[in-house]
Task: structure prediction
Amino acid sequence: ETGVTQTPRHLVMGMTNKKSLKCEQHLGHNAMYWYKQSAKKPLELMFVYNFKEQTENNSVPSRFSPECPNSSHLFLHLHTLQPEDSALYLCASSQVSAGDSSGANVLTFGAGSRLTVL
Amino acid sequence: GDSVTQMEGPVTLSEEAFLTINCTYTATGYPSLFWYVQYPGEGLQLLLKATKADDKGSNKGFEATYRKETTSFHLEKGSVQVSDSAVYFCALNDYKLSFGAGTTVTVRA
Result:
């Protein structure tokens, strides 16, 4: 049990579908993240939420829409995706202290949602 | 910007062999350095970390030393087991976390 749960674990969708990925953390953390993992490429940070506020959007196309209704839940809404969006989408959480610039922030990851776009 | 470069895999070795995965970084500040591991079907989990130069992180028989002079954080294990088969990611955190591309390691009995 990692403390971060992602659903669904696998998702196949057509380019015209609308679907959502869900992430829930049971660790009491105050920051949550979406990453995209593609084969042979570095993990790509997509979105960051600190205290439910989006603090980073890493030039992600608008067909990906995040939502963070509270500090324990994070969604990634998907619509009109492209085949190149097929990847493993990882959610993570961490505890960030206000004004902490040490950079020692450790992330706890979920198992990921494997997305295939046909 | 900050970046991490790690050796490409896949790496295949026999049980009890010595494992080294090279990692070098580029950063403008003084980052913390991490190794994360991803076992099959799971998310990433922290393996070890070092927060300043000359620090050595260690866990589960793995070690890595923060070398500022060579901007490196190589991962080593003296005797690997089949259960060490996984993907290993080097990462740095200056003002945000940056990951390498991952190195797939397969250990054969």
User: Anything to note?
Assistant: The first strand of chain A starts at residue 4 and ends at 7. Chain A touches chain B through 24 residues (CB under 8 Å). The radius of gyration of chain A is 14 Å. Residues 84 and 93 of chain A are 26 Å apart (CA to CA).
